[in-house]
Amino acid sequence: MGEGSEADSARQQEVEAVEVRLLLEGIRSLYGYDFRDYAPASLGRRLRKILEEEGLPSLSRLLEMILHDPAQMGRFLIALAVPTTAMFRDPGFFLALRQKAVPLLKDLPFFRVWHAGCSTGEEVYSLAILLEEEGLLPKARRYATDLSQEVIDKAKEGIFAAKAMQAYTNNYARSGGHGSFSHYYTAKHDLAIMRPDLAREVVWATHNLVSDGSFNEFNLILCRNVMIYFNPKLQERVHHLLYDSLAMGGVLGLGRGESLLGSPHADCYRALDVSEKIFVKVK
Ligand SMILES: C[S@@+](CC[C@H](N)C(=O)[O-])C[C@H]1O[C@@H](n2cnc3c(N)ncnc32)[C@H](O)[C@@H]1O
After folding, report:
1. What is the pLDDT of residues 183-213, one digit of tens each?
2. Class for domain 91-281, per CATH?
3. Nearest CA-CA partner of 160 in 121, 119, 117
4. Which amino acid residue places its CA nearest to atom 25 of ligand 1?
5. Beta bridge partners of residue 193, listed in sequence order
6. Average pLDDT, stretch 130-148?
7. Are 95 and 165 in contact (CB under 8 A)?
8. Pocket of ligand 1 (CB under 6 A)
9. Model pTM?
10. Atom of ligand 1 nearest to the CA of 151
């Protein structure tokens, strides 16, 4: 590369960095969503993908669209916040939950569960099935929250693609499922409609882990595959919030790529399953 093109590329990077800052500031000022403390590398990848898919020449153009059309914000919010999920995602996690966390919940007269970053609800239905099979569903008061209203609306419907059911059936079996997975949904054309009683009592709400506070005390919190998208400063904030929201003896389940490193309360937990990232609050 010649000197001229090196200078061009450095300038291009500088322009992009300014555009990212302006975009995130614009989204924050107008819509209140603060992505400034999301991990920059993965955020950059998602932004580049949006530009490519929309055929847009620059982030400045994307900012213009988002500022002038609120409907676009809803759409991009989902892409920025990463809704990827699955039923019984990481079956070993649900197996460990069944074997090691259920005994801790069994003796409570009732218990509260928080799904923080529940996306389109697959995790909520998975846990509902597990709790039902362990005879604990009637004792569970469940709260499922996410940044995005769009994904919550989808989660509430409890309707998923039928073509995903084969993979979910395998996950369910590997997670220690006792029965037949098809018992929990009705197939209609290319859709699978989950049994409504699995989510009837769930409180669905928007909650932003960047800016909102604790809203109850929980005996089980699943915050999986959410903090992985945050920078260390924001991870610390969320860990603080999760710690504050957990009852003593309460169980915290994180994602495969997540950990208590960076938690100001790491020494207040005992590992229930190290590899599946399941911890109990002990002080
Ligand atoms: C990759 S999905 C994980 C879903 C599910 N927990 C799982 O493990 O399959 C991440 C979810 O976190 C949500 N999320 C991202 N940032 C958030 C924030 N600041 N507050 C609350 N939820 C957030 C996204 O909208 C998305 O639905």
Report:
1. 999 999 999 999 999 999 999 999 999 999 9
2. alpha beta
3. 121
4. 81
5. 159, 186
6. 97
7. no
8. 81-85, 89, 117-119, 123, 146-148, 151, 208-210, 224-226, 255
9. 0.96
10. 27
Q: What percent of the chain has pLDDT over 70?
A: 99
What stretch(es) of the chain map to CATH 1.10.155? 3-81
Domain 3-81 architecture: Orthogonal Bundle (1.10)
Taking 70 as the threshold, does the pLDDT of residue 1 lie above it? no
Residue 5: which pLDDT band, with cuts at 50, 70 and 90? confident
At residue 217, what is the residue type? E
> What order of strands is seen across the sheet that includes strand 278-281?
203-206, 140-146, 111-116, 218-223, 246-254, 278-281, 269-273
User: What pLDDT score does 234 carry?
Assistant: 98
Q: Are 134 and 98 in contact (CB under 8 A)?
A: yes
Which residues, other chains included, contact 36 with Cβ-Cβ below 8 Å and sequence gap of 6+? Answer: 24, 25, 28
Specify the pLDDT at position 262.
Answer: 86
- Tokens linked to 194: 């989950």
Atom number, ligand 1, closest to the C-alpha of residue 210: 19
